[in-house]
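The instructor's notes for this session suggest beginning with a concrete chain rather than abstract definitions. Hand out the sequence below and ask the class to guess, before any prediction is shown, which regions might be ordered.
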Amino acid sequence: MESVLKTIYVIWYRELIRFFREKSQWAGMIMQPTLYLTFVGTGIASAMTFRQAPGGTPVDYMTFIYPGIIGMSVLFTSMFSGISIIWDREFGFLKEILVAPVPRWAISVGKALGIGTIVSFQGTILLILSPFAGLSLTLWTALKVLPICALVGFAIGLLGISIAGRMESMQGFQLISNFLTMPMFFLSGAMFPLHSAPQWLQVLMVIDPLTYGVDALRNAIYAGIPEAQAILQHSIAYDLSIVGLFSIVTAATGVTAFNRQG
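After discussion, reveal the predicted structure:
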C-alpha cells in the first residue's frame, strides 16, 4: 500500500511541476474564459430583447453564464491534459513507469488527481472575474468552488486519460477530444438553462455529466442570491453524487486503457 500511495503522489507531483513550468498555460487558462465571458456573453446578452437569462428568470445573462464559463474551463483543461499520456509514451517515460512493480491504476489515479488539483486552482482563480458577471463573491464561495472543480476535473481528466491511452497519435486524441468536449459544453446548460430547451435537447442535457458539474458550481456561486435559485436544477449533493458516479466509470475506463499499454 505504501508503494501505491508513493506512486500516486509522485505522478500527482509531476503533473503539478509540469503545469507550473509551462507559463503559457497560465495565461491560456485565464484568457480563454475571460474572452468568452466578455465577448460571447456580452454579445449574446445584447442580442436578446432583454438582458436576462433565458426562461424568464430575473437574472442578468452574464450572471447566468458565469458558472458555466468556469465549468467550460475545467472541461477543456481536464480533457486536453490527457495528451500528456501520449507525450510520455513518445519520450519513453510511460514505458519506464509501466514496468515498475506497482498497480497501473495508481498511475492513472495520480495523473487524474494532478489534473483535478490544477483545475481547482484554475476555478478559484477565475473567481476574480466575478465583477464582470455582477457578482460579489466571498472566501466561503471560493472554498466551495475549489472541491467542485477538483471533482469535475478528476472525472473528466480520467476520461481524457482513457481516450489518450487508446490513441496512437496526438492528432487522433485531439480529434476525439474536440468531438466530445464541444457537445459536452453546449449541452451542460452553461449557455442556456435546461428548462428552456426543446424536449429532445433536454434528454441529451440530462445525460451530459458536465450538466451536474455546472449546476453544482451554480449552487455554490448563487448561494445567498434568492432570485437565482430558480435557475438551479438539483441540490449540490445530488449534483456531486452524479459527478462522483461518473468519475467511477471513467476511472474504470482509464485503468483499462493503462492495462492495454505494452
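Then share the key points. The longest helix spans residues 139-164. Residues 2-259 form one domain.
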